[in-house]
Every structure is written in structure tokens, then in C-alpha cells.
Design brief:
five-stranded parallel β-sheet; RNA-binding
Length: about 575
RNA sequence: GCGCUCGUAGCUCAGAUGGAUAGAGUGUUGGCCUCCGAAGCCAAAGGUCGUGGGUUCGAUUCCCGCCGAGCGCGCCA
């Protein structure tokens, strides 16, 4: 419809140019937007305002000229000039009503588009260090990433969802060592647990498994473990202390034995995370191991490529990538003085690999605290000869958890946090998923636990689900009363009141709103849309009776109601929220 | 100090590419179930869009300064 109107205007402008009523080649950028008020028709265009200057006449005069030149077609009922020079289009009711039949015929596919033309997009999200269960801070990225993936798929992209497993870093060694120390305690040793170790209960669980399956195989006397280990905080340096312990674990156990302990911790936690995410309605296609990058030689390869292109130099015994040449604020180390590559080097290799796997576009969903990291990753891609614009980073702001009006703070290290699992069990999957995507991604948000828990009109997710359940209820009652509905052949012309007209219009813009949400990477647009739809429905429901004696009217209304429930279902599904038939 | 993201109703937030009278929810006040689900609807009240300039027919939107908030600025990951 938008396109038709846009074409009509373009045609009119060409006519005016040819008859020299306006200067030629004034370069129209024709915008057509859905009207915001029923009094302003269905669609509006501001061409006359934008072209007034170039045409050398007042906007209203130009608007009148354009309207006079627009050819009549039967899908447009009326065109008029309003306000400072807007052109408002009124769509014929027969045309707009046909959307109901489209919705019913297309069902679950209504709103789908082929915009992406099967282009390959990779979206990487969550990617939390597997050093503990996911907590509520990870939930927002998970919900937004999963919803974005659904949206992109819905508008025609081939989407691959990936979790980057940081299984090679210092944090993982701290975890492995923490598990080992807890294991020693289970063996009967008396261990003073490092202040910087992971203190959560899950560490005990893994240690218990280790002990159960291996008994005293990894046991070493504590005196030996603590020998020559620097002092812990507060008297000493807690970072140095834990690093010494890690080294001790490696030397005392030997590489192979240490690896067994380490891998048990890793595998257990990745499993926990995978299960938690699955229960949260989030499933990844690929779990990409950071360690595999070095195993496959990709890190060396990436550094070599940077070296070959002259973007690496040596200083203070380390190798530096000259990222300042590509817009970063300082150069970055890729290989340390001790010969080890940095986390950044892994990330260069990882992103290189993403594009080498054939993704035309790569989306990373990162916590907002990683924003300073973007320029260097893009710099490395440019230096390697990739188009850095094909890497998109969506920053997700933190969600503050509130309960009883108090902010809840969290720390994985200390073991004090609300897990994603607890949140879901507490407020329910639907409310949890919904709350996370309700707000614009880059907007800081407050997650009110009390509100999410509340099963009342205060909880916005129920508002949408209630609309759906209500429609299902009416349909059930029709069936019970033996009323047969012929919605497919309903005379939709009977839908005449303002509620019905507004609903028909709202249904018709679902495809474009979904597309906008996908292309702008803004899932919250779907939430807003559905809220508007539910609101219009509830108002209509309160103002009019569906199960009326007038069969034709009843069929028409039930057709509209069914279409509404279908769109609610489609929209909620994109967000991973259920559409219950009863509540 | 530099950088990123922000600042809209009492509170939580929408307002893409500049447009018509800045909108929801919640809270407050008052109405609506002899009628399909009241987890709902209707109405009222609530705003110098942080602040001061600039750009133009027009700025919540774009540009600059200032104030305020959160987060970053490692041979950590």
C-alpha cells in the first residue's frame, strides 16, 4: 500500500514537471508514513513540505497541485491536503479489510518476508565465561539475541546463532584451581580458600563429582600446595596469590592430570549453561571454543597475516598491532613478552574466522561495558582486508534488579547472585523473556522482580496474553453453543465502527513493524506493537458484542477476532513468549 | 582527564531517517460486570522533552557548550 501511494505521488510529480508547473529534477525523496490519527486518513506524506522550497511555492499550494494530479484508483477512496501541507490518503475499506483474509490464510507465516533473501547472518550472544551459572545480568543479552535471531529469520535471513566459549583464559584457570582446592578439602585436607577464588556452591558440586569418580587420585598435601605461594589479601596481593596457586596446581598435578580437573569444570559448567539457556527458550547452533583457535593455529595465522601486511611491530619484547592506523586510540599487544598471545589476538582470529566461514554479516551482542573494545576489533578486520562495516556490535545496557524497591547487586566471584534459572522459576518464562526485551536495547533498564511476579493487570505480559485468551474463550463458547463460524467467507464490509477500522489498520502494519524491528535490531518495537494491538482489541471487546444474532455481523467480527489472535500469537512467538488459550 | 551510552509526566519507559495537539503503562481521582473472561474498559489530572546557544519554513529529534547518571580507558579475560 505504501509503495502504491509512493508511486502515485511520483507519477503526479512527473506530470507536474512535464507540464512545467514545478521545476524539473527537484529530486523528490518521497516519504509515506502510516497516519497517526484516523482523522488524517490511513497514510500521509510530507512531500509538499520537503519540496516547497525547491518548487518555489508555499507547501499547501504545492500539495494542492500534487493532489490535483494524482490519478484516481479504486483502492484509494480519498486524498486531501491538511495542516501545513501534508497529503493524507484514505484507503478504501474493501481494500483495507482484505488484510483479515490475508492473516487467516497465511496463519503462522503472516508477517514473514523475504527481505533478507536468504543472506547468511551470524549472531553471537551471551558468550559468558563458563565460570559459573548464568545470572540475571546475562538474561537480557540472551533474550534480545534470541528474539533478534527469530526476527531476522522471520524476515528472510539464514541465521546462525553462536556462543563463544571462553575456555582458554585465566578466569577458567582460577575456576579449575578453585575446584581442585575444594576437592582437596573433600579429601580431608585443611585448605584456606583463596579470597579471589570462585566461592559459589556449584564449585563444591563439581569438586564432589571429581572426588566421587577419582577418589584421592589428585590429592596433594596442603603443605606442598601452599609452599612458596605468596600471601593472600589483605596482607598480600590476592591476584598474585591465585596465580601462584594455579601454577602450583599445574606443576604438582602435571599437565595431563591438571587438564582432567580443568576440563571437568569446563564441561560441567558449559552443560549447566546450555541447559539453563534451553529452559529459557534459547538454543544455539554452534558453541565455538576459544581454545580451538590456538589448537587450529588460527591465532598464529591471524598474527602472521597482520605481520605480512606490515601492521605489527615489536617493542619491549612484545608484538603490537598498529591499530591506531585504523582509528583505535592506542596500539594493542597481540603477543606478550613471554610469548603468549593475548585475548585480543584470539578475538582477531575469531572474527577473521567468522567471515571466512562465509557470513555476509556478523552481529555481536555485547554488554555495554565492552564498548571500548569495538574500535580495536574493527581495526583488526580492516587491517586483515575485511570490510569492518559487516561487523555490527549491539551494546546491551545492564539491567538493574529491584526487589522491594532495593537494588540487588551481584558478583559471580563471591557467589552472590540471582541466577537466570532462579529468575525464571520465580517469575515464569514468559514474564522473564518479555521484561528483558520490553525496553530499547541501549537503554538502561530496571527489572522489577515484584512487578514481573505479579499476576495482575500490573504485569504487561498478561495484558497481551489475556487478549489472546479472551479471543480463544469466545471461540470456545461459539463452539459450545453450536454456532458455526464461516469466518473465511465473512462479509467484512460489516466491520464499520471506529474500533474495527483501527484494528484493521493495526493488523495491516504488522509486517512492516516486524521488519523494522529486525532491520533496526530493536525487538522492543514488537512489544510496543502488540501492546497497541491488545489495547485496541480490549477496547473493542468492551464496546461491542461478538456473539450477536446477526449471523453476517457475527462472522465478520469473529473473523477479525481470529486474525487478531493470530497476529498476537505470531508476535509473541518471536519473543519466545507463549500465547495461552486459557489463563 | 579522554571516550562510549544516556537524560522525556511522581515512577518505569515509547517517540528511526527533523513535521500536524509530545504518547503508553503504573500511581492518584472518579465511573463501568441482570450481557461473550473486570488479568479488562472509559474519563480526569499530571510536561519550560536536563540546561544554554546554533542550523531552518519547522527541533524531543541534527550540531556545539555546560550540568547530571552509568560504563569503559591492562603485555586481564
Amino acid at each position: 500500500m505504501k509503495q502504491i501511494i509512493s508511486d502515485l505521488i511520483a507519477q503526479a510529480l512527473r506530470e507536474l514537471e512535464q507540464t512545467s508547473q514545478i521545476p524539473s529534477e527537484i529530486g523528490a525523496n518521497i516519504q509515506v508514513t502510516p497516519a497517526r490519527d484516523p482523522g488524517q486518513g490511513d497514510y500521509a506524506s510530507n512531500v509538499a513540505l520537503t519540496l516547497a522550497k525547491a518548487a518555489g511555492m508555499p507547501p499547501r499550494t504545492l500539495a494542492d497541485l500534487i493532489v490535483g494530479q494524482i490519478s484516481a484508483i479504486d483502492t484509494i477512496e480519498k486524498v486531501e491536503v491538511a495542516g501545513p501541507g501534508f497529503i493524507n490518503f484514505f484507503v478504501a475499506s474493501a481494500t483495507s479489510h482484505s488484510i483479515i483474509r490475508n492473516v487467516l490464510e497465511q496463519g503462522d507465516d503472516f508477517g514473514r518476508s523475504s527481505h533478507g533473501q536468504g543472506g547468511k547472518i551470524q549472531i553471537e550472544y551471551v558468550s559468558a565465561n563458563p565460570t559459573g551459572p548464568l545470572h540475571v545480568g546475562h538474561g537480557r543479552g540472551a533474550a534480545i539475541g534470541a528474539t533478534l535471531a527469530s526476527l531476522l529469520n522471520f524476515v528472510g535471513y539464514e541465521v546462525q546463532q553462536e556462543y563463544y566459549v571462553n575456555d582458554a583464559g585465566r578466569q577458567m584457570h582460577i575456576l579449575g584451581t578453585s575446584v581442585w582446592l575444594r576437592y582437596l578439602e573433600l579429601c580431608g585436607e585443611t585448605v584456606t580458600f583463596p579470597s579471589n577464588g570462585y566461592q559459589g556452591d556449584y564449585v563444591w558440586d563439581i569438586a564432589a563429582t571429581l572426588h566421587r569418580e577419582n577418589e584421592a587420585r589428585f590429592q596433594k598435601p596442603v603443605a606442598e600446595v601452599m609452599a612458596e605461594v605468596s600471601e593472600d589479601a589483605p596482607a598480600g596481593d590476592k591476584e598474585k596469590h591465585i596465580d601462584d596457586l594455579i601454577e602450583k596446581a599445574q606443576t604438582l598435578l602435571g599437565e595431563n592430570e591438571y587438564r582432567i580437573v580443568f576440563d571437568l569444570a569446563l564441561v560441567t559448567l558449559v552443560d549447566v549453561i546450555r541447559n539453563d539457556l534451553h529452559a529459557f527458550g534459547v538454543d544455539f547452533d554452534c558453541w565455538f571454543s576459544e581454545r580451538s583457535l590456538s589448537d587450529d593455529g588460527l591465532i598464529d595465522q591471524a598474527i602472521q597475516r597482520l605481520q605480512d601486511s606490515g601492521n605489527v611491530y615489536e617493542q619491549d619484547g612484545a608484538q603490537w598491532f598498529r591499530s591506531t592506523d585504523f582509528g583505535d586510540e592506542k596500539d594493542r599487544v597481540v603477543r606478550r613478552e613471554n610469548g603468549q598471545t593475548t585475548y585480543f589476538a584470539s578475538d582477531i582470529a575469531y572474527h577473521m574466522n567468522k567471515f571466512d566461514r562465509g557470513f555476509g554479516r556478523v552481529i555481536n551482542i555485547w554488554g555495554a561495558d565492552h564498548h571500548g573494545y569495538i574500535p580495536r576489533v574493527k581495526a583488526s578486520l580492516t587491517a586483515l582486508g575485511y570490510d569492518a562495516d559487516n561487523l555490527e556490535v549491539e551494546l546491551v545496557q545492564f539491567a538493574n534488579l529491584f526487589e522491594n524497591g532495593n537494588k540487588i547487586s551481584m558478583s559471580t566471584r563471591s557467589g552472590e547472585f540471582v541466577t537466570l534459572r532462579q529468575l525464571r522459576e520465580d517469575v515464569g518464562l514468559d514474564a522473564a523473556r518479555f521484561f528483558y526485551v520490553m525496553r530499547k536495547t541501549e537503554q538502561h533498564m530496571d527489572f522489577d522482580l515484584d512487578l514481573a511476579r505479579e499476576q495482575s493487570n500490573d504485569n504487561p505480559v498478561y495484558y497481551l496474553q489475556y487478549a489472546h485468551a479472551r479471543i480463544c474463550s469466545v471461540r470456545r463458547q461459539c463452539a459450545e453453543k453450536g454456532i458455526s463460524l464461516v469466518t473465511g467467507e465473512a462479509n467484512l464490509e460489516r466491520l464499520e465502527n471506529t474500533h474495527e477500522q483501527a484494528l484493521v489498520k493495526q493488523l495491516s502494519i504488522f509486517p512492516e513493524r516486524v521488519e523494522a524491528a529486525a532491520l533496526r535490531r530493536e525487538p522492543h518495537l514488537v512489544v510496543n506493537y502488540l501492546r497497541e494491538l491488545a489495547n485496541l482489541f480490549h477496547s473493542w471487546y468492551n464496546a461491542h458484542q461478538f456473539m450477536v444474532d446477526d449471523v453476517e455481523l457475527r462472522d465478520a467480527r469473529m473473523a477479525l477476532a481470529s486474525a487478531i489472535s493470530q497476529v498476537l500469537r505470531n508476535g509473541l512467538k518471536l519473543m519466545g513468549v507463549s500465547a495461552p488459550e486459557t489463563m
